[in-house]
C-alpha cells in the first residue's frame, strides 16, 4: 500500500479539507500527498501521524502496526527532530542528496538483514 493509499484509508469519511485544516496545510497540498504526487517533509509526516494517531512507520509502509510503545515513540520523535535539524542546515539541493543517501543506507541495511550469511 502506498503512502497516499494509507492516507485515503485513514481519512475515511472526513473530507480532505477537514484533514488539511487539522494538520495546518491547504487542501490541494494534502490532495497531492493522497495522490502520490508529492511527499511531505519529516515534520509534516509527524503531524499527519499525530492527527490520525498512528505511527510514522505505519504511514510510511514500514509497519502494519499503527501503535508504538511510548518509549519507541519518544525515541522516534527525538531521532526525527535530530535528522530535521541536520538536514535543514544544508542547501536545498544538498538536502535532497542527503535524503537520497539516507534512503540508500536504509535500503542497504534492510537487504543486509535479509541476506543469509
UniProtKB/TrEMBL annotation:
<dbReference type="InterPro" id="IPR010982">
    <property type="entry name" value="Lambda_DNA-bd_dom_sf"/>
</dbReference>
<keyword id="KW-0238">DNA-binding</keyword>
<protein>
    <submittedName>
        <fullName>Transcriptional regulator</fullName>
    </submittedName>
</protein>
<dbReference type="Pfam" id="PF01381">
    <property type="entry name" value="HTH_3"/>
</dbReference>
<feature type="domain" description="HTH cro/C1-type">
    <location>
        <begin position="7"/>
        <end position="59"/>
    </location>
</feature>
<dbReference type="InterPro" id="IPR001387">
    <property type="entry name" value="Cro/C1-type_HTH"/>
</dbReference>
<dbReference type="GO" id="GO:0003677">
    <property type="term" value="F:DNA binding"/>
</dbReference>
